[in-house]
TrEMBL record:
Residues 149-289 form the CEMIP beta-helix domain. InterPro entries: CEMIP/CEMIP2 (IPR052252), CEMIP_beta-hel_dom (IPR055401), Pectin_lyase_fold/virulence (IPR011050). PROSITE patterns: PROKAR_LIPOPROTEIN. This is CEMIP beta-helix domain-containing protein. Transmembrane segments: none annotated.
Amino acid sequence: MGRRMIFTYPCSATNILSGCPADQEPVPTSAVKEKWLISTPQLSFMQNDASPLGGEGVYRPSPQAVVWWQHPLCSPDDNFPRTSLLGARSGSLRIYAGPHRLHQYPSILVVATGSKVDMPCCSATLAPLAYSFTEEDIIVDFPCMIQEDIDVKDVVGYKTLGHCFFTEDGPEERNTFHHCLGLMVRAGTLLPSDRNSKMCRTITDGAYPGYVANPRQDCSASSTFWIANPNNNLINCAAAGSEETGFWFIFHHVPTGASEGLYSPGHTEHTPMGQFTNNRAHSNYRAGMILDNGVKTTEANDKDKRPLLSLIGARYSPHQDADLFKPRVPAIISHFIAYKNQDHGAWLRGGDVWLDGCQFADNGIGLTLASGGTFPDDDGSHQQVKNSLFVGESGNRGMLLPDNNIWGPGGSDFSSRTLPRGIDFPIRGMQIYDGPVNVQNCTFRKFAALHGRHTSAFGFRLNNSWQSCPKNYVTNITFDQVPITSRVFFGEPGPWFNKMQMDGDKTTIFHDIDGSVSEYPGAFLVKEDNWLLRHPDCIDVPDWKAAICSGHYAQLSLEHFLEIKVESYITRFFHIKEDFAFVEIPGGAPDHSIQVISVTLCVETSNLAALHSYKNTV
């Protein structure tokens, strides 16, 4: 089978293959290898020099992205209605290739295309692309039903509306995005995940009558790279300035759209990750990278009024051949760089998710590793970060811009700089959450608290209603220009932390294997007022709101039937003797709703394995 290329644009067929409207002549092919300088003044954290990031050892590019490409350039129509985000004059590029041939379409310029119901570049089986550039006012840049074994190389997306580099249905795998750049992704209207808060509330197509949108949960996910199947490769790519996220790995429990029925339910949640190497993300709002969540794969109904493809929860646990009965296969994230993202450098949920050689700088929270539930869904799995660098406040102070009012003194040298989220936002390098998490051979640099702003190398998730695992390990940690008072902070009631009364707030804990954090090898660090865990030999550290304790700690998850909700479950309903026999406390009623209880216990025995048999036991 051959190939055909259809360019749906209001022009005659004379110049279809040149990619230009009929009334415009392409620039002669001799006018190639031009250097275009794309200025990005709207990035929320503009860099102020082209040197390495303040000497802290984190690589970053210059403040402008320089793009070289080679193509038959067509000049845009001067009369094109660029003032409209959804201009009526638009079109799309469709490429169809036979299943047994690979074709290369180098140097395609796509300008001001796409529509409310279509995307500017679509393909069912797309051949390798090289040196393509898309410019302002495109609804979605490089999306659509890419199936498998496709190479996307040296492609640039700029100011797209909605997801930029986009895999749509779930079965798209073994594709490679190599050396691609996406800048300034904005909210769009096509999908719930494209939409911002206002769009989410006002566009209710496909929702069940009575639907009330929750924008931060249902929508608000526009991303530079939206990857619906983990078995894809992203190499040497960059994502900057997205309204929400740079790289987002999302899961379809079943395939959607034209791909319906191509894999069994739950397949992608267990599919091993492809290669994710040497990518970087900066100046994004929600996160540089997210590995979490799914999309709703059922139509709206009276029980779930959300429209199709709204964001929902999902859990990732990669196994060989996507088979839970076969060995686990860790998702490897190598040499990822995330800097100046307002909230997270990366939020990653597993299953086995392992980072190596990564760098995080000037983020609100450098890295959070989350598990699959109260106990990890995938037994035996853990998350880890090794051989990585965390920088709290680098020498790259940013620029004061008219639309950026989050500007204030830094903790290291008190000079003014851009700040994440808010002037008093508690900056954290490694945020410990869920578990088991292993942090090994990592360096933390320039984390320093100010009066009125807590900053720490290690911190914990705020307003945490879940659990903390005593198997959260840290070892071989190095601090550079981090006062000992800013190594750890467990939190206190106040702005951002609120009342600190949730279960996860009360049970925070991690194990300092070699004493590189606390200077007490083998110690556990616990919250200072966790009276269930601490004992007379514990040492208080007021600056950390913590206690350094010895002993053996274990975690237990219970389901209990309760008549009423209570603030604390720690000692009210059960007691465990040294031999792990339960002594029940009356009061539960089996006909009432289940409350899941997660408790960390201090036990006077080393036989902690016996606790495993009580997992999820009443």
